[in-house]
Design a protein that fits this description.
- With about 260 residues, the chain is an alpha+beta fold.
- The protein has one domain (about 1-260): Endonuclease/exonuclease/phosphatase (Deoxyribonuclease I, Chain A, 4-Layer Sandwich).
- It has helices spanning about 15-25, 45-50, 120-140, 165, 175-185, 190-195, 215; strands at about 1-5, 30-35, 55-60, 65-70, 75-80, 90-95, 100-105, 145-150, 190, 205, 220, 225-230, 235-240, 255-260.
- The strands form three sheets. Strands 3-4-2-1-14-13 form a six-stranded mixed sheet. A six-stranded mixed sheet has the order 5-6-7-8-12-9. Strands 10-11 form a two-stranded antiparallel sheet.
- Helix 3 packs parallel to helix 5.
- The termini are close together.
């Protein structure tokens, strides 16, 4: 089974990227974030025509939004509002092989890493704290589960182009990294990306639009993640960031991340 997570930055503007992804990598399941389309405007029929007949969308007009597009049947389709906001940042499904998939779009957090001065950063930290408490209380980590999405945090020094220069930049500050680690540790999540591509290798999934030549500058961050529970740890066959997708026509600033699991 091949599963992809991808912040698409508007599904309607970048539907052609799903076609190219499918042609080149043939994923079974694609989890999108930042779809920027309410359910009535989502290109459902176009996506089904591309060969993804099972689609679960949680959308809002112009902002946020998540979607799971699958060649496999989906069951137990649910969503949850976090921190008391109905802002379409989470959904979950169960695949035919019994794997429960959680698709997240964690708030970016604004520009200033101060929860007292920046409401967006405060929202981000509260969102992560709620995730930390919710999974152990509501879920069983002895079952096969995958958490994917744009978590908007690059936790390791090797996940950013310059640890020193980004320590005070939202997405790599110590307070965010600590909060993300608490989410992971509280439930025993395994960082599948670093299981396959361990440090000290640099690993990025996002490159700013501001770089005229993003590949040459290579000022990236690993904001997109795939976590798994222990039962899936030995089933990971391959994992890769599809870096070339950042250079496809009219690209997202995020590259897709693909995990391949044994049956």
């Amino acid at each position: 089974m091949r599963l992809v997570t991808w912040n698409i930055n508007s599904i309607r503007q970048r539907l052609h990227l799903l076609r190219q992804l499918d042609d080149e990598y043939n994923p079974d399941v694609v989890c999108f974030q930042e779809t920027k389309a309410q359910n009535t405007d989502f290109p459902m029929e176009d996506i089904k025509a591309l060969g993804f007949p099972h689609v679960y969308i949680v959308g809002m007009k112009g902002y946020n939004g998540v979607a799971i597009c699958s060649k496999l049947p989906l069951e137990n389709e649910t969503q949850k509002d976090w921190v008391g906001k109905s802002d379409c940042r989470h959904q979950s499904v169960t695949l035919p092989n019994g794997i429960e998939v959680h698709n997240f779009y964690v708030p970016a957090g604004g520009d200033e890493p101060n929860p007292e001065a920046n409401e967006k950063f405060d929202h981000k930290l509260k969102f992560l704290a709620e995730m930390t408490d919710w999974f152990p209380a509501e879920k069983d980590n002895s079952k096969p589960m995958i958490l994917v999405g744009d978590l908007n945090i690059a936790p390791l020094e090797e996940d950013v182009w310059s640890h020193k220069q980004l320590l005070k930049v939202v997405s790599h500050t110590p307070i965010e990294v600590e909060a993300l680690n608490k989410v992971m540790d509280a439930f025993g999540w395994v960082d599948a990306m670093r299981q396959i591509i361990p440090t000290p290798e640099k690993l990025y999934s996002w490159w700013s639009y501001r770089s005229r030549d993003w590949r040459k500058a290579n000022k990236g961050r690993r904001l997109d993640h795939i976590w798994i529970t222990e039962p899936l740890k030995d089933k990971v066959k391959d994992l890769k960031v599809i870096v070339d997708a950042r250079g496809w026509e009219k690209p997202s600033d995020h590259a897709p991340v693909l995990i391949e699991l044994e049956d």
